[in-house]
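pls read this stuff:
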Amino acid sequence: MMCIVVTKLEGERCALETQLANVKAGTLSSTLQKQEEKNRRLMGKLAAMEHQQQQLEQMLKELMDSKNNLAYEKGKLQLCELESWLGVSHQGGGSVAQTLENILASHSRLQHNTESVQKEVGRREQELASLRRDGLQGQRAIQRLQAEVEKLKEKLNAGTLA
């Protein structure tokens, strides 16, 4: 009689352990799926940010090229205008001054734009670094959860859940 009760209790215990293992495995699988989805989203954001950074770097390069070209043209124009101004009456000097003022204003705007782009590139680089950190943390969490799922599967197969 006692053996029958013990056998029934052991059977119930095994059934409960199996249910517990299934619940734990299901919870871990769900958590793992959420972490993988979060990781996919972060990796997508990272790719988008890297693409934007490349575009910003290209824009910065173009601005720097434009700035250098403008400086070259400014020097060339100043020389030509100075030569012509020296050869003409004082009345012609007003247009030279206006041209030089326009060039300086354009150069100032270009410098301001270049600084703005450089600040944006710096901000994007910080954001990329943050996304990379988040992605690595997500990958570590996924690996940890996968290892835990594997351990639970092994225990479930061995029937030794505590």
User: Anything to note?
Assistant: The chain has one domain: 2-84+96-158. The mean pLDDT is 82. The CA atoms of residues 67 and 110 lie 7 Å apart.
